[in-house]
Design brief:
The chain is about 50% helix and about 10% strand. The chain contains 15 helices and 5 strands.
Length: about 375
């Protein structure tokens, strides 16, 4: 069954960002962990058939030989790929591209039902971009390794191996030696200049930011002041997972969180989007963070500004400037994490999700008059 990792709400949020024309494609892709082609397909589907077209398919989309030929011929006759995808109700550009490749190489197009249970045993060489596309397609389709292998003419073992590497190390796991970060002595003069400019821009951004929160952690209403951060967990044989969260200083509730295997921009952006989406009309909290590269990035700044939030950042080396979220990390780890050893990523994420739900709904706090954060918050509604 073709299952998307993205809810209708996430798809609509991404489409609103496209419509606003204030975000780059890269920023939208990072915020929603989605490929550019998938974003384009969502837009075409929504523009053509509205919100119903964004709903998750309950079955695999199967195509006849005649449908495939008609779509390929339309594309070769000059229709754009988005027009072909919309006209023929094709699920993804990678599907159409696969048909075109077979057709132009004089291979026979067949009904989707034929050969669905076969995947190529022989692998092939791929580029980094191809591996990224293959892994994203596999994840977007419920980790169907066999279908993905057939779709991209690679082996089942390749798809499985790349997906596991992506799970463990993110996009870096899909890189080969040619994809590594160059050492300083390997850079051209132009590359050295570009790297230096980026360093200066990041430093200027840090210098411009003031500690607006100034350790004034009390709040008189919900969504007035937030703190955010990322913390690390270890599991299995030295593997790491990361939790990004936002805490509301009014009641100490966790308003949004995200668990991932990489501490990167995407993890932080994907934490921000549901928190912003859940804000009441007119609310524009101050959000405080440390000076990590995710929080000084252009993408984070744009998300904050477009949502009408005010960004405050800790001073260098002053972890107490972000004490509320640091305190939550301590509570979570003492009450849940340090009590047991986690061997699997799924086991750890499940425990984190269960604890945060308990913390928000059932963990009574003296400073909240013996109520849980959610109960205290409901009194202000």
């Amino acid at each position: 069954m073709a299952r998307s990792r993205h809810s209708i709400e996430q798809k609509l949020s991404a489409l609103r960002m496209i419509e606003a024309e204030t975000y780059t494609w890269k920023e939208i892709m990072e915020a929603h962990d989605v490929s550019k082609d998938a974003l384009r397909v969502w837009k075409v589907k929504f523009d053509t058939d509205g919100i119903d077209a964004l709903k998750e398919s309950k079955t695999w989309k199967l195509y006849t030989k005649e449908q495939k030929l008609a779509a390929v011929r339309d594309y070769l006759d000059g229709f754009t790929k988005m027009e072909v995808l919309s006209k023929h109700q094709i699920s993804d550009w990678s599907v159409l591209r696969r048909w075109i490749k077979k057709y132009t190489s004089h291979s026979e197009l067949t009904d989707s039902r034929k050969g669905m249970d076969r995947a190529m045993a022989k692998g092939r060489k791929t580029t980094f971009e191809e591996r990224m596309e293959i892994v994203r397609y596999c994840l977007d389709n419920g980790r169907n390794y066999q279908r993905t292998a057939e779709m991209f003419a690679v082996s089942y073992q390749q798809v499985y191996g790349w997906t596991k590497k992506y799970d463990a190390d993110g996009v870096h796991g899909l890189e080969d030696r040619r994809g590594r970060t160059k050492q300083e002595e390997e850079l051209t003069n132009e590359e050295k200049l570009e790297r230096r400019i980026q360093q200066i821009e990041r430093e200027n951004e840090r210098l411009r930011a003031e500690n607006l929160m100034n350790r004034e952690f009390s709040a008189s209403r919900p969504d007035e002041k937030w703190c955010t951060d990322v913390t690390e967990f270890k599991y299995g044989a030295g593997r790491k997972a990361y939790l990004s969260a936002i805490i509301d200083l009014y009641d100490g509730s966790i308003v949004a969180y995200r668990v991932g295997k990489s501490n990167n921009n995407g993890l932080v952006f994907q934490t921000m989007m549901p928190a912003i989406a859940g804000l009441r009309t007119g609310a524009g909290p101050m959000i405080h963070s440390d000076r990590g590269y995710q929080y000084t990035s252009r993408g984070f700044k744009r998300i904050v500004e477009d949502a009408g939030l005010t960004h405050s950042m800790s001073r260098v080396g002053r972890c107490l400037d972000n004490a509320p979220i640091e305190g939550f990390w301590g509570t979570l780890k003492v009450e849940m994490y340090y009590l047991r050893e986690f061997q699997a990523y799924s086991e750890l994420t499940s425990a984190i999700e269960t604890y945060i739900s308990f913390y928000n709904h059932d963990r009574f706090q003296k400073r909240l008059n013996g109520l849980s954060p959610v109960e205290y918050r409901s009194q202000a509604a």
